Amino acid sequence: MAHVEPAHLVELALRNAVPTEADTEALRHVEQCDRCRDELRVLTRLVTAARSAKALDLPTPPPDHVWHDITRKVSQEPTPPQGDDEGPDSRTAPEG
């Protein structure tokens, strides 16, 4: 069997749905495959940490002036690069 698709490993880690035959096959592969087993272990730890997070654990949003500054900078016209307009190397090769 080929490696378990990353999206399927995420679904296995989330455990949101009733297990299917495809899940059973994927878990059989995970038992035999170090790579998939490690990936599922990491994803499961991530899901567990995310589900146990409290609002207090989350970072506070930045002040409004930060978002206004980001919006202003993103909306600006791009500035052309500094330097020659003739291309990356405007020198001519020496004649020999």
Automatic annotation (TrEMBL):
Residues 54-96 are annotated as: Disordered. Residues 65-75 have a biased composition (Basic and acidic residues). It comes from Streptomyces indiaensis. This is Zinc-finger.
